[in-house]
Design a protein that fits this description.
Porin, 1 helix, 8-stranded antiparallel β-barrel, elongated, mainly beta, about 10% helix, two-stranded antiparallel sheet, about 170 residues
Length: about 170
């Protein structure tokens, strides 16, 4: 009888101390943006910021993701005017909230594609972002990523989009 209780106790304690996989992974990132094209390119040449990426863990290799970034831009901040002498404002900051897909290609290489709203100059514009990343450390605690962001800046001033190449280094939170 003692043997039965000992074996039962071992099975119960084994179940109590086993770990379950987390359903969500979160990364905090620092970013540098290099503007590739914009209607006021000299005003928004380089941006610095931070972001948060959330990946939902699923059994399939394509997973849902949410990508939040806030960027502050620097440049000459020259005054550009339209033909009607209306000002074309520079971008001081851009906040994006994109949702999309994350695909794990190999143990360390991954790809992302997302789209959603971009907020700047008190306006909301649609945008898309595609990128590739690499887990630098074996345990996927640190990742480097390069992305390209295109914001469809269609308004009454011009139909020129905003495009930036984004370099980021992300640290896993959980």
């Amino acid at each position: 009888m003692k043997t039965f209780f000992c074996i039962t106790l071992v099975f119960i304690t084994t179940g109590c101390f086993s770990q379950t996989d987390r359903k969500l992974s979160a990364f905090a990132s620092v970013n540098v943006d290099a503007t590739q094209y914009d209607r006021t390119l000299s005003n928004n040449a380089v941006g610095f910021g931070a972001g948060l990426q959330l990946y939902l863990r699923t059994k399939i290799f394509i997973r849902p993701t949410i990508d939040f970034n806030a960027m502050a831009y620097g440049g000459t901040k020259e005054l550009y005017l339209t033909e009607n002498r209306d000002p074309i404002y520079a971008k001081d900051n851009i906040i994006t909230l994109f949702g999309g897909a994350y695909m794990q290609a190999t143990n360390r290489l991954f790809f992302t594609a997302a789209g959603g709203p971009a907020f700047f100059n008190n306006q909301v514009y649609p945008g898309i972002k595609a990128g590739a990343g690499y887990y630098i450390l074996e345990g996927r605690q640190l990742a480097g990523r390069i992305c390209f962001t295109n914001i469809f800046q269609r308004d009454d001033i011009s139909n020129k989009n905003f495009g930036a190449l984004n370099f980021s280094l992300a640290l896993k939170l959980f």
